[in-house]
Specification:
This protein is 38% helix and 22% strand. By secondary structure, the protein is α+β, with helices and mostly antiparallel strands. It has 2 domains: 81 residues, Histidine-containing Protein, Chain: A; 53 residues, LysM domain (Membrane-bound Lytic Murein Transglycosylase D, Chain A, Roll). It has a 3-stranded mixed β-sheet, with helices on one face. A two-stranded antiparallel ribbon has the order 4-5.
């Protein structure tokens, strides 16, 4: 025997997308959705791990474009950074924050970056002084690596 050559587009049409998708049953669809959900949770957990912010008893639940996060953070700042990191992931539209905080503190204000914004412009708007841009930059580390690299639609913490 050996390698046989056939006309690829001739013969029974049982391996087409239409035929294979018709063969899927509800269980296959349910399993695929569960797998996609688990993959999203693993990727989102990686985002949190990449921040280096420890969240005790971290649990995530993903439902469509909504992620619910449970756990305990040491500070309000850490809590907000985790929420922002998840919310700034493409495909996530809502973050349901269920994180408790060990040391309660004032919540920061959140701001959505608009076209033409810079940290200096945002600092002038909130603090009246464009030179206070570094306060915003520091409040958004490690999500921000460079004060000049922000983008429209990105959500930032604005400390009071």
């Amino acid at each position: 025997m050996g390698l046989f050559s056939f006309l690829k587009n001739a013969g029974a049409k049982i391996l087409t997308k239409k035929a294979t998708s018709a063969a899927e049953d509800e269980e296959t669809i349910r399993l695929r959705e569960e797998l996609e959900k688990r993959q999203k949770m693993i990727l989102l957990r990686g985002v949190i791990d990449g921040l280096g912010i420890p969240i005790k008893n971290l649990e995530l639940d993903v439902n469509g474009d909504k992620v619910t996060i449970y756990g305990q953070a040491k500070s309000q700042s850490e809590r907000e950074k985790v929420v922002l990191a998840l919310g700034n992931v493409s495909g996530i539209g809502f973050v349901d924050d269920r994180i408790s905080v060990t040391r309660a503190a004032k919540e920061a204000e959140f701001y959505t970056v608009k076209r033409g914004d810079s940290l200096s412009k945002i600092a002038k708007r909130f603090y009246g002084d464009p030179m206070k841009y570094n306060k915003i930059f520091e409040a958004n580390k490690p999500m921000l690596k460079d004060p000049n690299k922000i983008y429209p639609g990105q959500m930032l913490r604005i400390p009071k």
